[in-house]
Amino acid sequence: MAVSLSQVALRRFGLGPRPGDDRRVGADPRGYVLAALADRRAALIDDAELRPSWSVVSELMQINRAIRAERRGGLMGQRGNGSGAGAMRPGGAAGSAAGPGGAMMRVSNPAMQARRMLIQTITRGEFAARVNRTLETEAPFLERLVQFWSNHFCVSAARGLLVRVTAGAYEREAIRPHVLGRFADMLRAAEQHPAMLDYLDSRRSVGPNSRAGLRRRRGLNENHAREILELHTLGADGGYTQDDVTNLARILTGWTIAGLNSRDVSPGAFAFRMGRHEPGNWTVLGRRYADDGRVTGERVLDDLARHPATARHIARKLAVHFVSERPPAALVDRLAATFVRTDGDLAAVARALVTSPEAWAAPAQKILPPLDFVVSTMRAFQLTMLPLRVVRVAGLLGQPLWRPPSPKGWPDGDNTWAGPSALRERLRMAERAARMVRGSVDPRLAAEDLFGSGLDEHTAEAIARAETRVQGFELMIMSPGFQRR
Known about the structure:
Layout: H1 5-12, H2 21-26, H3 29-34, H4 53-80, E1 96-98, E2 104-106, H5 110-136, H6 140-152, H7 161-175, H8 183-191, H9 194-199, H10 211-216, H11 223-232, H12 242-252, E3 255-257, E4 270-272, E5 282-284, E6 287-289, H13 294-305, H14 308-322, H15 329-341, H16 346-355, H17 357-361, H18 370-381, H19 387-396, H20 414-417, H21 420-436, H22 443-451, H23 457-464, H24 469-477, H25 480-483
Antiparallel strand pairs: 1-2, 3-4, 5-6
Helix pairs in contact: 4-5, 4-7, 5-7, 5-18, 5-19, 7-8, 8-13, 11-12, 14-15, 15-16, 18-19, 18-21, 21-24, 23-24
């Protein structure tokens, strides 16, 4: 069966068809996808209800200080009363302390309640903004690019409270403004964001020979430097050495989050602390960098953004994500060349992807990740579900929002999403979704509308033989044409 170009446009480069989309897109599939690149501001989420990350981090720090102060006061009171229990138990829950006889007692105070309310309010608001944008967007290719880059520069809310309350803002502030801009700008925005600084431990890294290092005997943390080189820029085979990792880690010391002491004027934002910075001139990838404090790290990032290995790494990841786990070499070469020629213009690279014949010739191979599966199902059948419920369903299918399993992000292969247990969960989701389809529309007609010329005879026959209307929709949702792109 020939590849349906309208289905490629809607599924490979989008979030699946809605009723009538196949007919609308059929006249100019490539033009439909390219139209998403016309407005560089279209990826932004402008919602006055969503707070900037610095504001959230600042409030979280204030609340945490209040909790610590009240806990210290409570424990001092216990000592004064002769209870003898002074310290938090190792691994104890926040707000818990050892009471008389070693029993755990719960510290109940307004600050703890304020922190719970902050977490709940922020996460629910960010979930709703992300899910609603994905469901309602008229430029699905743009949202797919946001998802790609958010996963490339991923942070995980499982890291702790700070990342949990800033993961959504991180995507809005570091990824969306640059998704059609320059890679170098996105790289800097991501690496200097409070969420990334906390996730990869950069805010805890101290130069051993810095003032703070000599005073407190705290040391270097290489996590951030390693992930910048291995994951965010050059790639694992990009030619860097362990010395490059260590020297970049030294250069990045001093990058932290304002608000760690009461004298900070911009709490919650990126800050540079010279007192934590490792002094010296360091060599990364054969280039020696003079010690100019904060800007030294920014110069290294700019050079990494322009490195040929970075272009190759990004090109291959894009091709794997959108086309195939084994993408055509010609496609990767073209994307890498565009990246180099345009100085990392991501709109130009995306345009090169869409206009490459290889991207349209490959059959649908890649299975939908859980969140895209849920979103595609809802868009196809106009289903309604609360955003928090969408996030929970995606989590049950194995992909909780903003909680990737490692700094590598969510995997981009079928091994993760197409295993027996994962497919059983999808079948349960398909059963529930099929029962939610409103109206009296015939699943056979719905399939013709959604798939157009991409409807294969096996799927059409299976739907026609379904014993019930619900079963017909269930078979459609679980068909290869719906599950793969």
